[in-house]
Design brief:
This protein is mostly helical. The protein is built from 6 helices and no strands. The protein is elongated and about 50 Å long.
């Protein structure tokens, strides 16, 4: 598969890529890339916490109580404060956080 992708990229874009088979195997097994891992370490909510927020939003919407942006932000901030404690900023999440969150999870929300 790695060689096929290398050949395809060369034929289409004239760009050589080096894709190691172990990298492919690790992604197949669900292991995050270094970039994904680093981003998760910097994020206020980890992947599991984000999924919890999405699931909660869906559950309430299915019951006829869709959440507005303010409420989604409040829920996310409660989770983040619970994990980060005093390290979480007093001002909470940023102004654009909900928009980015919804955009990131648009396939489910």
């Amino acid at each position: 598969i790695c060689l096929e992708m290398d050949t395809a990229c060369w034929e289409e874009d004239k760009v050589r890529i080096k894709l190691h088979r172990n990298t492919m195997l690790q992604r197949y097994r669900g292991r995050a890339s270094k970039r994904e891992y680093a981003n998760e370490e910097k994020a206020w909510l980890n992947t599991a916490e984000q999924e919890s927020v999405v699931d909660y939003c869906i559950a309430l919407a299915n019951r006829g109580f869709p959440l507005n942006n303010k409420r989604v932000k409040e829920i996310a901030e409660k989770i983040a404060r619970g994990r980060h404690g005093d390290a979480f900023p007093v001002d909470g999440l940023g102004k654009k956080w909900v928009g980015r969150f919804v955009q990131k999870h648009t396939d489910r929300l």
